[in-house]
Amino acid sequence: MPASFKTTCCYCGVGCGIVVQQNRQGKLEVSGDKDHPVNRGMLCSKGMNLHYTVMDTSDRLLYPEMRYNRQMQRQRVSWDQALERTAAVFKTIIAQHGPESVAFYASGQCLTEEYYVINKLIKGFIGSNNIDTNSRLCMSSAVAAYKMALGEDAVPVCYDDIELADCIFVAGANPAWCHPILWRRVEAARAANPNLKIIVSDPRATQTCAQANVHLQLRPGTDIVLHHAIGRILIENGYTDASFIEQHTEGFAAYWETVMQRTVAEAAAICDVPESAIREAARYMGQAKGFITMWTMGLNQSAVGVRKNLSLINLNLITGHIGKPGSGPFSLTGQPNAMGGREVGGLANLLPAHRLLDNPQHRAEVQAFWNSNPISPKPGLTATQMFTALNEGKLKAIWIVGTNPLVSLPDVRFAEAALQKAKFVVVQEISNKPETLRYADVVLPAAAWAEKEGTMTNAERRISYLHKITDAPGQALPDAEIICRFAQKMGYHGFDFNSFSEIYEEHTRLTAGTRIDISGLDYNTLQVKRSVQWPYPKSSAGKGTPRLFTDHRFYTPSSKAIIHSFEDGNSSVPTDETLPLILTTGRIRDQWHTMSKTGKVNRLKQHIANSFLEIHPEDARQRHIAQDDIVEIFNGNGNVRVKAKLSTDIKKGVVFLPMHWGKVLQSDLNRANNLTHALVDPISGQPDLKFSAVQVQRY
Ligand code: SF4
């Protein structure tokens, strides 16, 4: 192999550039790419240890396996045997129960090429739209809100705007731990410009709050009340941009009526934050020349997630802070390629290049391009709907690609019962650890990061090429190759690609003429440029697009952005006398998702080795709980038992569990999603993972 490769980190949506080298002993080493525009040589703890996930193959799936019934042990088989049997079972189920009886559940960590072929397979050839990914748990509320407000699922902002802003409002996010390199850029911007004001809203005083001028430690579920109160203050103090509102937005009059319904004092009481702090935060926003709102799961993972998003985007719209340097609403992508997945249409309600499933012309365009069967207009099953349909017997077969729903889905014991009832389960994975393997009838070993090539799109629409650097162990294959081989076993044409670059070129051709046109891109261009931001049409003259809506023309029918108005209530399952505490869940700094990669790197366990419950000392005292006591957290869905960590950083009445841990030594009692509800946002389908009523007691 050559001495060094430049590639991209495969963990979070920041999308840092990585240099991978082989040392004299033949071992891989990684360092930050100093020339990369995202991270400028920096890497966080996860990125710095990424090579260990590839070098240690002790947990890797090496060969296809299958079994003929659940009483059998799975046996090692050849790829042909595994894929022929899978194709035979799929054909039988589809013949007996129709194309909607099968589904693919994939991952925001899939490469764009992988998403593309899965999407083409099920929508164009199998004939249903039953493909969803764990991005449904991550970004779908932001996607819906961008479309409703701006007319397109398009992040208007770029990372360079961070250095140009003089106010950043971080709402319901902890980027210091979850998007560390992006946050380093915020810290550096703050050091260069001490006048940069940072406002954080979060029920927990996280590491991000260390930089905050104002921390609004609100009660969970009251974000809309807070955003509306800020909107009212901006209006009453003349901080809005009347000319921008008049020329480039719709809906301001109704918004005015809505936000004037509560006084700021009433809102402060509901949110349980000082009125003076809300006013101070609003003043910083109103006086800013560049104003960025940033958010992620705290707003997205909610039963009113789309409304929370819209109420935040409204603050950019009424102040005119969008489509100009240092300003805009910035949804921080959780996963490395959630955006690339949406570009190819890899969700149950999308078509390639952000075309719409309910648009007959869009369906006809894609069908003609693929030379495929007619595309169904009926939206497919979302992530949580798939497991409900399995439980009800409507969905017979599920193919799980690169994700671990038996840790990450809400009300996870329900999901486990669903997999038990499935007639046929295929698990396509790199690791032998995920809990889903217990239910797999067919196991397909997949290549990991650095063992395959492809592309990803980060949070600022930046598309990067990832090199294949080393061979996959055993017989593991790249995910896209597995899907194409299966499609050919099914007898479908259009999957005989000779290379991954051919898949990518087909995808880019399908974007031509759309708002996310990247028809000017191919692997050669990406290998030379390393990364570019979409759109990148053929006419782009070699330049990407750092910032959108600079002409203040939006993708709505009127070309105006829409200021949406709605009630500010939360529809989560409320607390009561028996379940008085609000459980919120989230990430810790050095682990990623369900730990199938980070969990095997010893260095990453040094930060926090075990799950824990963060609880306020006053809530603990009332329950006779001391530091490190084993506590049981419970509600009607299930229970969790972990050690208590007493901290005044968490709001009284709120408790926190990390989301990473699953079954350890056959016990599932540290799995946070034993306690979460299957409730979802009615527009986005995103689960309400940040608000569950629970009780806690010493065990
Ligand atoms: Fe990887 Fe995200 Fe860390 Fe960058 S910030 S090194 S993309 S995990």
Characterization of this structure:
This is Ferredoxin-nitrate reductase. Its cofactor is [4Fe-4S] cluster; Mo-bis(molybdopterin guanine dinucleotide); FAD. This protein is α/β, with parallel strands linked by helices. The chain has three domains: 65-138 and 336-540, Rossmann fold (3-Layer(aba) Sandwich); 140-331, Dimethylsulfoxide Reductase, domain 2, CATH 3.40.228; 581-698, Beta Barrel (Barwin-like endoglucanases). The chain contains 24 helices and 28 strands. A seven-stranded mixed β-sheet has the order 5-4-18-17-16-6-7, sandwiched between helices. Helix 4 (112-126) packs across helix 21 (500-510) and helix 5 packs across helix 14. The longest helix has 19 residues, at 79-97. It is globular. 59% of the residues are buried. It binds iron/sulfur cluster. The site of iron/sulfur cluster has 14 residues, from helix 1 and helix 7.
Structural class: alpha/beta
Work out the count of structural domains. Answer: 3
Largest sheet: 7 strands, mixed
* Percentage of residues in helical conformation: 25-40%
Strand segment tally: 28
Strand order of the largest sheet: 5-4-18-17-16-6-7
Family: Belongs to the prokaryotic molybdopterin-containing oxidoreductase family. NasA/NapA/NarB subfamily.
Cofactor: [4Fe-4S] cluster; Mo-bis(molybdopterin guanine dinucleotide); FAD
Keywords: 4Fe-4S, FAD, Flavoprotein, Iron, Iron-sulfur, Metal-binding, Molybdenum, Nitrate assimilation, Oxidoreductase
GO molecular function, one term: metal ion binding
